[in-house]
What we know:
Blueprint: E1 2-9, H1 14-28, E2 32-40, H2 44-50, E3 55-57, H3 61-74, E4 78-83, H4 89-99, E5 107-112, E6 128-131, H5 134-144, E7 153-155, H6 170-179, E8 187-192, H7 202-214, E9 218-223, H8 227-234, H9 238-241, E10 244-247, H10 253-262, E11 265-267, H11 278-285, E12 290-293, H12 302-305, E13 312-315, H13 321-329, H14 332-349, H15 352-368, H16 372-381, H17 391-399, H18 407-416, H19 419-428, H20 448-455
Parallel strand pairs: 1-2, 1-4, 2-3, 4-5, 5-6, 6-7, 8-9, 8-11, 9-10, 11-12, 12-13
Helix pairs in contact: 3-4, 3-20, 6-10, 7-13
Amino acid sequence: MRIxxxxxxxxxxxxxxxxxxxxxxYRKYGAMVAVLALQASGPRLEVxxxxxxxxxxxxxxxxxxxxxxxxxxxGADVLHLHSEGPVRDFEAEAIRALLRGRSRRPAVLExxxxxxxxxxQRFQETDVHxxxxxxxxxxxxxxxxxxxxxxxxxVVPNIVDATxxxxxxxxxxxxxxxxxxxxxxxFVFGCVxxxxxxxxxxxxxxxxxxxxxxxxxAFFVGAGFDDTARARIAAFPEDVRRRVVxxxxxHDDEVLRTCYSAMDVFLHGxxxxxxxxxxxxxxxxxxxxxxxxxxxxxxxSQLGVVGHERGGLVAASERxxxxxxxxxxxxxxxxxxxxxxxxEYVRQxxxxxxxxxxxxxxxxxxxxxxxxxxxxxxxxxxxxxxxxVPDEHVRSLLANTLGRTPLRARxxxxxxxxPALFRAWWAIKGRLRRQxxxxxxxxxxxxxxxxxxxxx
Length: 456
């Protein structure tokens, strides 16, 4: 089997990392693989080439057309697109060019990072939409109800690499703490995130200040602070401020693994939640449990990926985050229990050994089905593939938190997940008219299909 991974660029982002990990995983399980990067190269190009993976790199419209033509000559049996969702025009045109003229149509999979729905249905070539967590599939199902023909979705999680993330040696952890002035007996909360205000919300720092005032052993390590975060830290009382350690954003996995391992608890506080959250799996594999909070009206996969009292504590809202932090700081046995249970769960559900066979089963059904109806029936009949998430499952996740979900959040969640209201909100925001059809850096008139014909 020949599987072509398609992604916009080979940057260091999470979506690109997942595309890389899937590609290398496919090959490990016997498939021939190649990668088509439509718009740009990036640091992942060297990783793929060192692994011996053919990579076709685009750029401007002419370069993109040439890369698509070269990828087409490679002759894939499966096209696996990693998109933000909805599929942008340059991605759609590239896939149509790859499908054109084939005697046997390749199966088309789409991993949609954010689980968005394209109500204009400009691109219907996707056979199976892959959603990275049950919560994301549930949201996608709500929003996709009006679409005809109904699209097919299945849960296939991101890969968390257990060969790169595992507990660092105690000597390395001790050296890390010494290097950053953290006492041996300190209880370290930490977070690794990009420098974005949404990743460093005010309530996270308020919660740490509250806990740190009551517990002199509490420290905070942050990698990737933005200026807003620094301003909040500067406003701390001196005794609390000196217990905050700032690190640059970490790209090196070995350094990142040591950083995770040096934390007692990973503190997550994004107000928009996570569609999956690779950092959760990485931290848990390093033996570090999570404190996070529920975000019912937004991405909320932390409820399932972390799991309250399985891989950490999930607060029902921002107001309970400090309570969760204090509970772990004062209960070392619980920290150890959550670290062990969380790591086991990640190994059983999110490692390559689980995810790639699941992907290959989905591909097998897509290749063998004679129609979309037959494919839907085959996916639904496979007990190992989740194609439907009932409301009861979502309600059980929301109920299993520290504290009670506020009434406002529950009402907003109901409204947001009604397709008509969601579409109205989307239109009001102007997004329905301005979905990212092409990269902002590209000319609006760029057309892959036209350019491909020029080079044919």
